[in-house]
Amino acid sequence: MSQTTLHALRTPLYERHRFMHARMADVGGWSLPVAYGSQIEEHHTVREDAAMFDVSHMCVIDIRGVDVRRFLGKLLANDIGKLKSPGKALYSCMLNEEGGVIDDLVVYYLDDEYFRIVLNAHTARRNIQWIQSQIVATKSSVALVARRQDLVTGHQDALAMIAVQGPYARQKVFQAIPSTHVAERVKPFNSIIVHDPEVGELMLARTGKTGEDGFEVVMLAKHAVRVWDMLRSAGVPAAGLDAWETLRLEAGMHLHGRDMDPQTSPLDVGLGWTVDLGTGREFVGKAALRARRQDWQFVGLAFEGSAAVARTQSPVMSLEGDVIGKVTSGTYSPTLRIAIALALVTPDIKFGSYVSVEVYNKRISAKVVRPPFVRDGSSVQQLL
Fold it and tell me: pLDDT tens digit string along 11-56?
């Protein structure tokens, strides 16, 4: 990550990060905290207790209208018909006509004419243009409103998002904001709207990308500092995006732009479970997916010894030296104390076999495993 620039966008919590002496960096055009102290300590705090992240650079959009369910049924590869209870969430890919992944997203069903979608930050503007073009193409009676502060007309409508993650995350949210106790029975991948006397409307979604329990809390941007301070007063420390990266990679979760892009299909990257090919519903990219063969499989790599971290695009080779794929994301795992990576390799490679990866001009041995690496704070399998 590069150092932050004067022209980088800022979230509503920017001044709080500076006050807390966070190390800031330019992340996709946003000035964001990458660490407040030790990245390793922040990582372990999430695995063992709870910490919070400013994820207001993610783009929340609201889609409303009488045609909204029909429209989302054509836009998304996963079946929007699964959303039948208010607050229920669905993970899906949004595809281009060739079956490539434009973005992966989470959509929340709020009522029959109102859905909320959280898009990835760096692709938000392009994705919104794509969605708007599909509204026109399908002649749908729906309206899209982007709620991120750099995209709204008036800041009164801007939303912010704080992710509180860890085994004690929900307990600490309830302590910090007593009105949220109504969310005590919210199941994973569900959400609820709470009205708090101090900070107004909050959406608490039991989702996240760390592999731990917790909430992603959405609020009006003007109340973000107050919510942040309430959480800090309840003993929730802040964590930066460097820890977020190691946590999501241990959890085997995809990052758009690294682990997938518009040239890769969801079938290639292990997201076939998010694609509904079996019903008569037509969606953008469905015909292409049916005709497209699977060129790759998505795997985890666990490195032996004190191996250096594999970089994105590092070649993956068979033990005979043939190139059979590439690393998409790599990191040092603070939980497992080894280097790990996610990779795309040819479909014939077996889990449990060994490959080699070119890291800084050296070939390092790695075991091919099925992601995730870590769940509930510990290894999910015999890695080495």
Answer: 999 999 999 999 999 999 999 999 999 999 999 999 999 999 999 9
The CA dihedral of 82, 84, 85, 89, to the nearest 10 degrees, is: 30
DSSP string, 288-352: HHHH-----EEEEEEE-TTPPPPPTTPEEE-TTS-EEEEEEEEEEETTTTEEEEEEEE-TTPPTT
Q: How many C-beta neighbours within 10 Å does residue 365 have?
A: 16
Strand partners, 342: 300, 329
Over residues 166-208, the pLDDT tens digits come to 999 999 999 999 999 999 999 999 999 999 999 999 999 999 9
Cα separation, 136 vs 138, in Å, equals: 6
Domains of the chain: 2-58+156-249 (3.30.1360.120), 253-379 (2.40.30.110)
By residue count, the chain amounts to 384
Would you state the pLDDT for residue 306? 67
Choose among 238, 246, 247, 185: nearest CA to 212.
247
Distances in Å between the Cα of 108 and the Cα atoms of 87, 91, 150 are: 6, 9, 22
- Cα distance between residue 248 and residue 230, in whole Å: 26
- 346 backbone dihedrals φ, ψ, rounded to 5°: -65, 150
Distance of CA 157 to the CA centre of its chain: 23
